[in-house]
Write a structure and sequence with these properties.
The chain is an alpha/beta fold. 25% of the residues lie in helices and 23% in strands.
Length: 191
């Protein structure tokens, strides 16, 4: 019997919530080290990332590193219809509580950016597979947003190693990623 998206999402979120804070912190630091070595990152002037929630791979150190390196850090802001508006973050002080209490850029202080101007996108998810399929939280926010990017803009999922499976349920309309960054590897999903 094949597992459904709903069942897989529940199992992965449960496993993710069972990880210790020390494990998560170390995984975030290892993923940062790996990110800094990627040509995709080194060649990008603007990088879209997210603020981690619900025990996701921590992104705080990555955001600090990007700001310190002079990269244009882009964070998602969500409108009332779960549509992503990419906004440039100038300072972590410019974050406000947004959709579902998720920290996001204050629209009064952070300007929106055209998705076509983003050089690299780091994407959250609940599970991924080696073909670049992604299981999100079920709202479709990223599936609606990612096609707005330039085709050549790398779209990289970020996950703990245990979140990368051989295959996950996928349907037409699910967006495939170019790669997956974990604390121990970069998995290229498309040439």
């Amino acid at each position: 019997m094949e597992i459904t998206k709903k069942e897989l999402r529940k199992a992965m979120l449960l496993e993710r919530s069972g990880q210790s804070e020390a494990f998560r912190t170390e995984a975030g630091l290892q993923a940062l080290k790996r990110l800094l070595t990627l040509d995709y990152y080194q060649n990008a002037e603007s990088v879209m990332i997210y603020i981690d929630i619900k025990n996701e791979l921590p992104t705080g150190a990555m955001i600090h590193a990007m700001l310190n390196a002079g990269k244009a850090v882009v964070l998602p802001s969500l409108d009332g219809n779960c549509r992503i508006i990419p906004c440039i973050l100038k300072s972590l002080d410019d974050l406000v509580s947004g959709y579902a209490g998720i920290p996001e850029p204050d629209p009064q202080k952070c300007g929106a950016i055209d998705p076509a101007a983003i050089d690299l996108v780091l994407v959250p998810g609940v599970a991924f597979d080696r073909q670049g399929n992604r299981l999100g939280y079920g709202k479709g926010c990223y599936d609606e947003f990612l096609p707005k990017l330039r085709e050549q803009t790398p779209k990289i999922g970020m996950a703990y190693d245990f979140q990368v499976l051989d295959a996950i349920p996928a349907v037409e309309g699910d967006f495939q990623l170019d790669g997956i960054l974990t604390p121990s590897a970069f998995i290229r999903c498309r040439p």
